[in-house]
Amino acid sequence: MSAVAIQVVDLARELKDRFPGTSFLSQKTADDIPTFWISRVVLLKVLAFLKPRYEMLFDLCGVDERMRDNRQGMPDADYTVVYHLISFRNNLDIRLKVGLDEADLNVPTAIPVYPNANWYEREVWDMFGITFTGHPNLFRILMPPTWEGHPLRKDHPARATEMPPFEMTEERQDKEQEALRFKPEDWGIKRKNDNTEFMFLNLGPNHPSVHGVFRIILQLDGEIVVDAVPEIGYHHRGAEKMAERQTWHSYIPYTDRIDYLGGVMNNLPYVMAVEKLAGIDVPERAKFIRIMLAEFFRISSHLVFYGTFAQDVGQMSPVFYMFSDREKLFRIIEAITGGRMHPAWFRIGGVAQDLPNGWHNMVKEFVDYMPARLDHYEKMSMQNSILKQRTKHIGVYTKAEAMDWGVTGPGMRATGIDFDMRRDRPYGGYDQLDFEVPVYHNGDCYDRAMVRVDEMRQSLRIIEQCMNNMPTGPYKADHRLTTPPPKERTMYDIETLIQHFVNVSWGPVIPAGECSMTIEATKGNNMYYLTSDGGTSSYRTRIRTPSFPHLQQIPLISSGLMIADLIAIIASIDFVMADVDR
Amino acid sequence: MEWSLSKADENIPVTDVDSALDEHLKRNLVVTNLEDMLAWGRKHSVWPFNFGLSCCYVEMATSLTSRFDVSRFGSEVIRGTPRQADMIVISGTCFLKMAPIIQRLYEQLLEPKWVISMGSCANSGGMYDIYSVVQGVDKFLPVDVYVPGCPPRPDAFMQGLMMLQDQIGKERRPLSWVVGEQGVIKPEKTSQRDLRNDERMKTTNLREPDSV
Structure pTM? Predict the structure, then answer.
């Protein structure tokens, strides 16, 4: 038996010993993550048992199983709630599934065990209509409060053109604005205490400092933030529902726009998950082209972070320098892929085209030019005494808090947790590259920025290695499910021609199964959990984005600080609203 | 007003000139009507509102930075409050939850005000034909210029801005509430595709993507 299979058997045995009489039905998934179906009656006990071993609730999502055909070996369920737990200490994952009947869509809340379940459960309520008993504020999170229906259910219309046309009447505007009015009582917030009456200030959704359409309602005592209620959903584009309507191949441009600064980095987990499901092995050259471009976009995203972070703290000039560097970077990306921000260039089985002749010189020019600029920026921004005063010891959270609240990526490494998916769970070729993972220990705004600054240098190292050692060979796998499939033999035999035609027009039929793929994306850990029902489109695409849990944490780390500190904190979290709301 | 620049050491050939007085007047006097002058002033100082929804906002912000520098065209001052801005660029997808807020912001902009719809999502919903996206911001806002792209390059945005400037130059606005016809008379929107199609069809040299 393989090591993974042994681990599953051990875990199943341990769970059965610990909870005698309860069933733990194991399900095999294409990503080899131990998956167990449990009943909601034991859910909290099992979570509490697993918490010491699996520190973080990585993802909580729902699935509407009513139209799924290929469910062999799974218990009957109309809806499923999936809990994905992760351990960074032991580098392990586990998935728990709770099956529910349509007439009784109710699960106990996981908040007592994993505090970051709060927003995830609100999202499952919003999208599926599954209630969570014990949840303090089970309101809609992504849809407007006046919305009726639960979008990710299979009977909810997907397209705007399937619904009545939109009209903005004054009545509607007033109704929507009134529904968005903040009522402190709903959140358990008091309007006043013995000494003072609090002011409730609305920051956003249109505000230059909130980095996108994000709303925070602040409870203020003068200038000091007593509590904050972040509100999201203003950027909800229904990416998960869209996946059920698009073919596996034509969904790739939608993934680009999830983290709109990440470009091609977003294609990577999606495409890799599909390849795992289909059993495609990507050739070496394609792997390193992907890594090189992904690291370019990491630098691009971190440059935007750097410039806007400095700008939010008060330095007006650095953002212009950073954007100029981004232009040089985009010149390379545009030469290779044809697009600037949203290339959508990765394909199932490889990349869209081979690298153009002359790419080497362009990349070399950039790699030689950038380190000096980064040194210059460090002197200009990170060593500036005002920036230091405004960001050191501001927005501090500990390692335990990071795990409790689902913080991944640079925010996690700034607290001292030394884990990076690229090094500790290498994917797509990273195991052949030599790079360091910057870790800092204070967990404040300054350290989060420093982690990203150092990550940029490491990305340059990775790009240099890719440039110097780029393997030769095909840029796409020679597999029948590669999309679009290799064309060479289509003119010679009819089978290849038919396959090519069907794959390009109808789309590849990916075998039934479930697969998730997590990568170290620019903002944190990004996971695509795909469920295929053996069709040309995905049955369920779950996108676990890093920025979603990061925003949940804002009230905790900014309480007791002033508004100006809150702005520095928001800038240091480095989120993108499309990443939060999808 | 006619004027020309020349180098100091050049020998400028003397052309047929009118009397010295006429020449002097030509170089120093502008004769126009008040409405045209005001339109000229308005079009070269369109202050954008610091508003962005989505990915297109990043490209709009890029057009404000050094390489593209939209402040060369007068949009130097980007204002945080709608009360002080002239133009709102709907850069990004118009979400259902955000629509009443955009409407509110548009109402808060003071006349004269213009709307540029930037990007496919703002133009028509783009590739997001989905339950939570309004299929085009023109469903509830009057749009002056549509800039296509996903996202449009900063250069494309600047072209849209310049088209808006042309349009503003041709607008007829009342000089005061007591003088002239009230109400704004805007020129007809032209389709750039129709205007430029012939020229574009003549392109025969397309760069190969195989080498840079």
Answer: 0.90
